UniProtKB/TrEMBL annotation:
One of its GO terms (biological process) is methylation. SMART domains: SpoU_sub_bind. One of its GO terms (cellular component) is cytosol. SUPFAM superfamilies: alpha/beta knot, L30e-like. Pfam families: SpoU_methylase, SpoU_sub_bind. GO terms for molecular function: RNA binding; RNA methyltransferase activity. This is 23S rRNA (Guanosine(2251)-2'-O)-methyltransferase RlmB. PANTHER family: 23S RRNA (GUANOSINE-2'-O-)-METHYLTRANSFERASE RLMB. InterPro entries: Alpha/beta_knot_MTases (IPR029028), Ribosomal_eL30-like_sf (IPR029064), rRNA_MeTrfase_TrmH (IPR004441), SpoU_MeTrfase (IPR001537), SpoU_subst-bd (IPR013123), tRNA_m1G_MTases_N (IPR029026). The lineage of its organism: Bacteria, Thermotogati, Deinococcota, Deinococci, Thermales.
Length: 237
């Protein structure tokens, strides 16, 4: 898998998952010294080679081949929660197809302390280089799960004692009024159509984030970050 951009490549190199680094000829010497100081070996190549490799010109002159990130098993999030001695908190994605949103959700979930992000194989963005780049390294530190059937996975979580909240503008419960003192999974729908009916019907409750401005909705990644942060803050409080 190839990733690009200076910060994502430097982060991946610090984690030790980089196989090869390519740098465009003509990149400023100051940046090359930064790579050398970090002990990162690199090859100088024509910039057009990077353009063709990652199919964009927005690579900032650096591309890295990294080890493939393996998807986790369906039970990995609950297992991680048990290992930490914490109440489970999962993020389930229903129809998030933008890889940048997907990566941003992975980043927020890992940074805030959730135990895993789960999406459906056919109705979500893949764990692509774009998603990995947007996750800023989080995809390597968090169970990332893809299941063939999200409604069925929700039923399995409920059988395991996990309470499932669907985030929806028309939710009957306000974010600040929900009960977070139990195993919990947030379900985040797509920005366009929200939660599918099959998913919505399996949620224990629908929860809304109160909006006070004129903008009618939030970006899915922003909404997911708010929901995860609120749940964890409520537990600590």
């Amino acid at each position: 898998m190839w990733i690009y951009g200076r910060n994502p490549v430097l982060e991946a190199a610090r984690e030790g998952g980089v196989r090869r680094v390519l740098v465009a000829r003509g990149v400023e010497r100051k940046f090359l010294k930064k790579l050398e100081a970090a002990g990162i070996s690199y090859e100088l190549v024509p910039r057009i080679e990077l353009d063709q490799l990652v199919r964009t010109t927005h690579h900032q002159g650096i591309v890295a081949e990294i080890e493939e990130i393996r998807l986790a098993g369906p039970d990995a999030p609950l297992r991680l929660a048990r290992e930490r001695g914490e109440l489970p908190l999962l993020v389930l994605l229903d129809g998030i197809t933008d890889p940048r949103n997907y990566g941003a959700i992975l980043r927020s979930a890992e940074a805030l302390g959730a135990h895993g992000v789960v999406s459906e194989t056919r109705r979500s963005a893949p764990l692509s280089p774009v998603a990995v780049k947007a996750s800023a390294g989080a995809a390597r530190h968090l169970p990332v799960v893809q299941v063939p059937n999200l409604p069925r996975y929700i039923e399995e979580l409920k059988e395991a004692g996990v309470w499932v909240y669907g985030l929806a503008g028309e939710g009957e419960v306000a974010l600040e009024a929900a009960d977070y003192d139990r195993p919990l999974a947030w379900v985040i729908g797509s920005e366009g159509s929200g939660l599918r009916r099959l998913v919505r019907d399996r949620c224990d409750q629908l929860v809304h984030i109160a909006l006070r401005g004129r903008t009618p909705s939030l970006n899915a990644a922003v909404a997911a970050g708010i929901a995860v942060h609120w749940a964890l803050a409520a537990r600590r409080g």
